[in-house]
Write a structure and sequence with these properties.
mainly alpha, 11 helices, lipoprotein, cell membrane, Phosphatidylglycerol--prolipoprotein diacylglyceryl transferase, membrane, EC 2.5.1.145
Length: 290
């Protein structure tokens, strides 16, 4: 079935406002909101979960976690998704204005920071990650909204869904896809671009809203160290693997074996590590009152 009318991308200006030559972007605002939300909520929760930590230690933990996510996210994108471009031009790593962040890389960055603070404060590593995990979905949801406003990271072509949307920025890749496909050529003639899944919105609801509620329920109900961290890794991994079936793969990588995306490959270890943490947490292996 082919729908005659598709949803049109709302064409939101990615720039909120400008002061002289300086532009302030919605995407940047999403990062800022995520940071301040984590600081505000994290400080409240830390009093219960981390006990005698000093105020400066809490501030340092969240500030360094933020930068760990940013630096790790950029490194992860370059190494996981664009290694060839990096090898050809190492300075590409610093061209952040050209876009490119990886959640999995950002997660590794946060884990490194949590491990550092664990060693230096003699606190349980998993108590720290249990504090951080329920805060992550807010940032994920905000980031996906930023992607949608920018009209980027759209989904795969879909001619049969009532949710299919026309993204103006997809035209370049749509022209390539339509070369040997008559149906796509007709759609391009009628609409200018191919209808696609608004996968950013799917991820916003799954990885943002739904995961946020699940994680905060888990954090309140189960106090044993590691359960929150393990559950986050499992559920996020499952949600990401599912949503990747609707998301257009990165053009420089495509799909491995014509089926699996890089996002799905990187999410599989998360599920396995999450299961490992959960099993040992439930057996009391990681439980320490520090």
């Amino acid at each position: 079935m082919i729908y005659n009318n598709y949803l049109h991308f709302p064409q939101i200006n990615p720039v909120i406002f400008s002061i002289g030559p300086i532009n302030f972007y919605w995407y940047g605002l999403m990062y800022a909101l995520s940071f301040f939300f984590a600081i505000y909520v994290g400080k409240k929760k830390s009093k219960k979960s981390l006990g005698v930590w000093k105020k400066e230690e809490i501030n340092n933990l969240f500030h360094m976690s933020f930068w760990g996510a940013i630096i790790g996210g950029r490194l992860g994108y370059v190494l996981f998704y664009n290694i060839q471009l990096f090898l050809n031009n190492p300075f590409y790593l610093f061209k952040i204005w050209e876009g490119g962040m990886s959640f999995h890389g950002g997660l590794i960055g946060v884990i490194v920071i949590a491990f550092y603070f664990s060693k230096n404060s003699n606190k349980s590593f998993l108590k720290i990650t249990d504090l951080i995990a329920p805060l992550i979905p807010f940032g994920l949801g905000a980031g996906r909204l930023g992607n949608f406003i920018n009209g980027e990271l759209w989904g795969r072509v879909s001619t049969s869904s009532c949710f299919s949307m026309l993204f103006p920025k997809s035209r370049e890749i749509d022209l390539i896809l339509a070369k040997n496909n008559i149906q796509y050529q007709i759609l391009l003639k009628n609409y200018g671009v191919l209808p696609r899944h608004p996968s950013q919105i799917y991820e916003f609801f799954l990885e943002g809203i739904l995961l946020f509620f699940i994680m905060n329920i888990i954090a309140k109900k189960y106090k044993k160290t590691g359960i929150t961290s393990g559950t986050f890794m499992i559920i996020y991994g499952i949600f990401r693997i599912f949503s990747e079936f609707f998301r257009e793969p990165d053009p420089q990588l495509g799909l491995f074996l014509k089926t699996i995306s890089m996002g799905q490959i990187l999410s599989l270890p998360m599920i396995f590590f999450g299961i490992f943490i959960l099993i040992y947490s439930l057996n009391g292996f990681f439980y320490k009152n520090k």
